[in-house]
């Protein structure tokens, strides 16, 4: 089962992602956060029913009110228990500065929502293949 933390403030975009996973028939456990601060609460929670357990992937929007995606990336990469988190950016921002900043924070990929929307099934297939082929760090690896 693929585990995903979806971090996006846009309800329509969140629903589209959830619908896409469902339509693709992917066995997925998806938690949703509306901004970076809410995502960090989930990732750092002492409540086992709320916290995401490794391994998991993050789908992260950049442009959000409150704590945006780049601030979230900075916090995650500074945190010794979260720094190895696998994060894919899924955003409307086609800014070279945003893309460079995201990759400087070691994201696994940068996907424009406009391109993903036209081939969302391809994006989901890529995530499923990534999840099933790549050996991800887990809690026993000191994550």
UniProtKB/TrEMBL annotation:
<keyword id="KW-0597">Phosphoprotein</keyword>
<dbReference type="InterPro" id="IPR001789">
    <property type="entry name" value="Sig_transdc_resp-reg_receiver"/>
</dbReference>
<dbReference type="Pfam" id="PF00072">
    <property type="entry name" value="Response_reg"/>
</dbReference>
<dbReference type="InterPro" id="IPR052893">
    <property type="entry name" value="TCS_response_regulator"/>
</dbReference>
<feature type="modified residue" description="4-aspartylphosphate">
    <location>
        <position position="61"/>
    </location>
</feature>
<feature type="domain" description="Response regulatory">
    <location>
        <begin position="3"/>
        <end position="128"/>
    </location>
</feature>
<dbReference type="GO" id="GO:0000160">
    <property type="term" value="P:phosphorelay signal transduction system"/>
</dbReference>
<dbReference type="InterPro" id="IPR011006">
    <property type="entry name" value="CheY-like_superfamily"/>
</dbReference>
<protein>
    <submittedName>
        <fullName>Response regulator rcp1</fullName>
    </submittedName>
</protein>
């Amino acid at each position: 089962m693929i585990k995903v933390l979806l971090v996006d403030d846009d309800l329509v975009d969140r629903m589209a992602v959830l619908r896409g996973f469902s339509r693709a028939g992917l066995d997925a456990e998806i938690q949703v956060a509306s901004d970076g601060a809410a995502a960090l609460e989930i990732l750092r929670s002492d409540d086992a029913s709320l916290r995401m357990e490794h391994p998991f992937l993050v789908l992260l929007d950049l442009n959000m009110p409150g704590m945006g995606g780049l601030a979230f990336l900075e916090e995650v990469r500074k945190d010794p228990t979260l720094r190895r988190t696998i994060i894919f950016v899924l955003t409307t921002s086609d800014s070279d500065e945003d893309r460079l900043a995201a990759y400087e924070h070691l994201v696994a990929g940068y996907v424009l929502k406009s391109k993903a929307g036209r081939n969302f099934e391809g994006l989901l297939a890529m995530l499923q293949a990534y999840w099933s082929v790549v050996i991800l760090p887990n809690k026993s690896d000191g994550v």
